[in-house]
Design brief:
The chain is of the alpha+beta class. Among the domains are: 57-212, no CATH class; 274-371, no CATH class. It contains 12 helices and 12 strands. It has helices at residues 57-66, 71-92, 96-108, 113-118, 129-133, 144-161, 167-177, 179-187, 193-212, 217-228, 280-287, 354-371, and strands at residues 8-10, 16-18, 26-28, 232-234, 239-244, 246-251, 254-261, 293-296, 304-309, 311-312, 317-319, 325-330. The strands form 5 sheets. It has a 3-stranded antiparallel beta sheet, with no helix packed on it. A 3-stranded antiparallel beta sheet has the order 10-11-12, covered by helices on one side. A two-stranded antiparallel sheet has the order 1-2.
Length: 379
């Protein structure tokens, strides 16, 4: 909305925007009232991944053997994985010997805070999850604008240090390396339907997006410059837009600051929902009763529609409204978002990526079916 209007960014690390006068005045907002975190400058080799120390294969297999809801335990240890990387990076600035000893003790004691005291990590450097979940808790008496500029400058500074150096950026980067343990929990149905709805899809998924799949840090630098040039104003949390013809926008957290405009641009990416799809093939499959929307059944609640097309997770074959498998008809990728997770993610080289494994699984099932005499296989 500002590109090619005559304005220019000048500078390198800290940009300044020189407007042309042809830019619109932009009032922006969202649920959190913040852009996603800038991606840390990449320091990893193409195939490099950090291996889990808490969400190990052994622990996941033990949960699989129990065959019951393990959501509380899983999210506890996921948090500890992130804390471990954060403190490892913090300690690496002091001593590599301390880092190795700390890692051993932190894992052995399940991330107890006593370990932080034992290694004399200053209290002000302890990770405070309240501010990770909701950075606005750090806002004091300053204006929303001043808070945002301070926050975004901090975010850019951490991202610029790199995703193997900055404690913050490294911790967020780790979420990308822990996608397989998350998918294991989904595939093995180790979340109860209620936990799947509330803890995973409604809580973890948006938080993961906020922390780990944001823009390049250059975009946040540009945003800072546009805010300082009074081209962009960002509202606080929970943006509300009212009216028609002339619209009024404000933050539910700061309702006294209101802005009027003639145009509204809906800029969010809508969640995947097979019931709203405009894809003619998918619409016909639903209308003909060949496919059906996936839903979770939660005691004492109405069915929860995940947005996915219903499939048999073991084979990726479609399910009709009676949950009957449609032999030879497979679906994977974006329409299954809600059963699977991050289906639009790009395959990372050398990591045996999830979407490629799924394709191999479908091909193997097709081949097996053909050898058994069923030569129908549509993908």
């Amino acid at each position: 909305m500002t590109t090619d209007r005559g304005g220019v960014f000048i500078g390198t690390d800290h940009l300044r925007y020189i407007p042309s006068g042809n830019e619109p005045t932009i009032i922006a907002g969202s649920g959190r009232g913040l852009p996603y975190h800038a991606r840390g400058a990449n320091q990893k080799h193409p195939t490099e991944q950090i291996l889990p120390r808490f969400l190990t294969t052994e622990r996941l297999r033990s949960w699989q053997a129990k065959g019951q809801d393990q959501s509380t335990e899983f999210f506890f240890y996921l948090q500890k994985e992130m804390e471990l990387v954060y403190y490892q990076r913090w300690l690496s600035q002091e001593s590599e010997d301390d880092q190795a000893a700390f890692t051993e003790q932190f894992v052995r004691q399940n991330g107890a805070v006593d370990v932080l005291t034992d290694f004399q990590i200053p209290r002000q450097n302890w990770l405070d999850w309240r501010y990770i979940f909701d950075p606005y808790k750090r806002k004091k008496s300053q204006s929303v604008r001043d808070f945002l500029l301070t926050y975004l400058t901090w975010d850019v500074t951490e991202a610029a240090k790199g995703n193997l150096t900055s404690p913050i950026s490294s911790m967020f980067e780790l979420l990308k390396d822990l996608r397989d343990p998350v998918r294991f929990m989904l595939d093995q149905q180790l979340f109860s339907p209620k936990a799947l709805k509330e803890k995973f899809w409604q809580s973890f998924v948006p938080l993961n997006a906020f922390l780990s799949i944001g823009p390049p840090l250059q975009r946040i630098r540009e945003l800072i410059a546009l805010i300082e040039a009074d081209i962009v104003t960002i509202l606080g949390p929970k943006m509300i837009v009212e009216g028609s013809g002339t619209f009024v926008a404000y933050s539910a957290s700061y309702p006294q600051q209101r802005y009027a405009a003639k145009q509204v641009l809906e800029a969010r990416i809508q969640s995947t929902d097979i019931r709203r799809t405009a894809n003619p093939l998918l619409r016909h499959l639903l209308a003909d009763g060949i496919a059906s929307p996936h839903k979770l059944y939660i005691p004492k609640e109405a069915p929860f529609y995940t947005g996915a097309i219903a499939i048999d997770p073991a084979t990726s074959q479609l399910l009709d409204p009676n949950d009957q498998i449609q032999e030879g008809l497979y679906c994977f990728g974006i329409p299954t978002e809600g059963i699977h997770w991050l289906t639009a993610a790009t395959a990372q080289p050398g990591t045996n990526a999830f979407n490629l494994r799924q394709a191999d699984q479908i091909a193997a099932h097709c081949l097996t079916s053909s050898l058994l005499g069923d030569r129908r296989c549509l993908q």
